[in-house]
Automatic annotation (TrEMBL):
Annotated ranges, domain NAD-dependent epimerase/dehydratase: 5-164
Statement: the UniProt record of this protein carries the keyword Oxidoreductase: yes
Gene Ontology molecular-function annotations: oxidoreductase activity
Keyword NAD tagged: yes
Species assigned in the record: Loktanella fryxellensis
Annotated protein name in UniProt: Uronate dehydrogenase
Family: Belongs to the NAD(P)-dependent epimerase/dehydratase family.
Length: 278
């Protein structure tokens, strides 16, 4: 059991899912976000409000930590200045504070959007070159390269989890390949923490879907073995799905809707607006 784990982004949807599983892996869990507080703190959990763009605040949160699970960031496309402060400067402060405080490993919520402009017909592995689809995806490229640099020059281990579509269920045809179930997210993060050594690693955050468009073989040493499969939802989803357009990057690229959203504009808002019109 680890002595202390820090979880950033604890007030977010995915961060909230991880609080209890992480608390079971350590004696002390420190959670942080911009929110003034969290409800229903666990017996070994302490919450500290912190701005990840401020190194001095992050330094205090990291003191005495063994590992950091970094989910704190804007989780959508946004204007450049917002992405710069939250996702890029915030990544730097996390890795720099981890180095200064002697943290062993950073487990990072990266994204498919770091490689979102690759065609889905390319069955890519974890060595595929960066090909971001948005400023948001570009920030994930930066953080992955930062993780690589801090491993090579400062010995901080990292596991960069390129998360796809992490939802409770499967609601569209794209997700038949890209779905990451909530239980599999917990399995993935747990594997990233409990694996004895990782160096600098990249792993796809997907479930065991029949239609998965990426290859996780190079990350098998992490011991992540997903158990859920989106195919059980295929009859319902495909019966409702519109035909895909082979000339449309949204249908043909790994990044899906983010492959066509204008730079700086919310991809999530675009998806919601379409749902309302439908």
């Amino acid at each position: 059991m680890l002595n202390k784990i820090v979880l950033t982004g604890a007030a977010g949807k995915l961060g909230g899912l991880l609080r209890a599983p992480l608390a079971a892996l350590c004696r002390e869990l420190v959670t942080t976000d911009l929110a003034p507080g969290l409800a229903n703190l666990l017996p070994n959990e302490t919450y500290v409000a912190a701005d990840l763009s401020q190194l001095d605040q992050v330094m205090g949160v990291m003191e005495g930590a063994d590992m950091v699970v970094h989910f704190g960031a804007i989780g959508d496309e946004a204007p450049w200045d917002a992405i710069l402060q939250s996702n890029i400067v915030g990544a730097y402060t996390v890795w720099e504070a981890a180095y200064r405080q002697g943290v062993r490993r950073v487990v990072y919520a990266s994204s498919i959007h770091a490689v979102g402009m690759h065609p889905k017909t390319d069955f890519i592995d974890t060595t595929a070159r960066h090909r971001p689809d948005t400023y948001y995806g570009l920030s994930k490229c930066f953080a992955e390269d930062l993780a690589s640099l801090y491993w090579d020059k400062r010995g901080i281990e990292s596991v960069c989890m390129r998360i796809y579509s992490c939802e409770e269920s499967v609601n569209n045809a794209r997700a038949l390949g890209t779905w990451l179930s909530h239980p599999d997210l917990i399995r993935l993060v747990t594997a990233a923490i409990t694996t004895p050594t990782t160096g600098f690693s990249i792993v796809w955050g997907v479930s065991a879907n029949d239609r998965v468009p990426v290859d996780n073989a190079r990350a098998s040493f992490l011991g992540y073995r997903p158990q859920d499969n989106a195919e059980v939802h295929a009859p319902r989803v495909l019966a409702q799905a519109a035909a895909m357009d082979p000339q449309n990057p949204e249908d043909m690229c790994h990044g899906g809707p983010f492959a066509v959203v204008p730079l700086g504009e919310s991809g999530v808002a675009m998806i919601k607006a379409r749902s309302v019109k439908a």
